[in-house]
Amino acid sequence: MKKTKTTFFCQNCGTQYPKWVGQCKVCGEWNTIVEELVVMEKENKYNSSFTDKKPKNTIHRITEISSQEETRIITGNLELDNLLGGGIVPGSVILIGGEPGVGKSTLLLQISLQISKKVLYVSGEESNNQIKMRADRMEILNSDCYILTEIQTQKIIKKAQELKPDLVVIDSIQTLYSSYIESSPGSISQIRECTSELIKFAKETSVPVILIGHINKEGTIAGPKILEHMVDVVLQFEGDRNYIFRLLRANKNRYGSTSGLGIYEMFSSGLKEIKNPSEILISKKDENLSGNAIGVTLEGLRPMLVEIQALVSTAVYGTPQRVTTGFDAKRLNMLLAVLEKRAGFHLGVKDVFLNITGGIRIDDPAIDLAVISAILSSNEDIPLPDNCLFTGEVGLSGEIRAVNRIEQRILEGEKLGYDVIFISKYNKIDTKKYNIRVEKVSKVEDIYKILF
Prior knowledge:
Number of strands: 21
Radius of gyration: 26 Å
Structural class: alpha/beta
Shape: globular
Distance between the termini: 83 Å
């Protein structure tokens, strides 16, 4: 006989409650508590094993355990391999999230077709014909890529045991359901149960599993937060559908660094890796225009050059507008206040529009110097020299503060052929060893005197 139990879950954070309440006490959201019917089978599913031999759980001294590095699976996608720390670790569980249409399924199908391993691609959202149509557009053939359209976890694991693949891809975890739980797919209990069964399968068989996860309106992966704690790696796909660039970040990585970044370009034939994003993110123009400045930022461990465009004009309406794209609007207001208070520029009565080209978003404070340089250039209507770079953080007192990894930033500008880079005076480096001229500034007034 089955034992029936009714519980209440918060659909935002996954907190369980014995009865319905209006507001979740953990995340503070209202009207997110939903009743779910949970039916557990009498047989204990955790006693079953996916291998012929059940693992023996014994106690070992930590000094007695041999430390040997497992051979990673190379996907052939250099950006993803570097992001994962050198490839996919056997038995690991990787979760990839992102906006609809950003390229999650495209990337994983592309990897499944180009990897020299046996891959089981499980889809609960598309039919075999739809997947084949997408594979034909990529023009990549791999006879060892097997497609399975199924949403029941137990059947997926059974097919995987029969096929014995080297890699399993699940598209997506929100579409799966387990027969042990009587609730609809995508619910908190189903996501947690299906993920737990797939993790158990991956750890016992040493077959890595890649999960695709949907995101909610806040931009975080849908489902309980414990889902991200359960898996080994959490990757986030970012990008604007109006642009062709895609960023893949590591929010969690048990086998490598979380400061990595993969950059792709979206085409109809799939995602193409970008080796040098700096040359692509800087727009090509015939004449030098005011309001444009090139900043040096760091995305993870990779230095990049980005173009900042600013437009300062007289406010048509009573309240001046502050519009930003790819940059924090509150930080822009802070920088404008610094220019108003410390440098004497009357920007409080003018509209200021700021844009970072390429459709990417930058949170690095090191581009503050480039932002104020672009604003001053547009305000004075004087173009900046097209051979100069800017990197430095602006403080509230108007000082230019030092930024980290300044050597990498300088070498990136030198490699791309720029003549001069403006940095903070407080960066203690030897400027003579670079082929690019390094100008040190200490205040906002200094950069204005040099450029204008």
